[in-house]
Amino acid sequence: MQTTDMAVPTAEAKSKLLSLCEHYRKQGFYAEEIESHLWEFGVFISERLPDFVTPRELYDFCMFRVVDISQGMCRLTAKPIEGELAKIKIIAFMLESEIPRIAQAIFPDSFAKGVQEAQLDAMKRANVRFENL
Q1: Count of domains in the chain?
Q2: How do residues 8-33 score in pLDDT, each as one tens digit?
Q3: Residue 1 maps to a domain
């Protein structure tokens, strides 16, 4: 089993997600146009993140939350999503592209690399399905 396949505890990550923008800036990432939404997404993810995740699980978890936000309903709680995230649907899909950088700002490098690989794998699978239509 590779390091990137192993589940890691998320207690520290949940805490960092509550101040995601600060950790973003520490990594040198610039996200001024979506900063308030990024902060709200960090809180949203932190409140729902399982206690242990693999990189693929984190990527999938964040993607499902992006879909939830775009639909205005959290499937984990079966409750409507409130706040600015739910008001501007396009923001959800802007956040989708930020998932690997979120992981890089919050998790160790090897874990973040696994999240990036999960995103690339998901994109490849989507391309294969599209090409086979």
Answers
A1: 1
A2: 999 999 999 999 988 888 888 766 77
A3: no
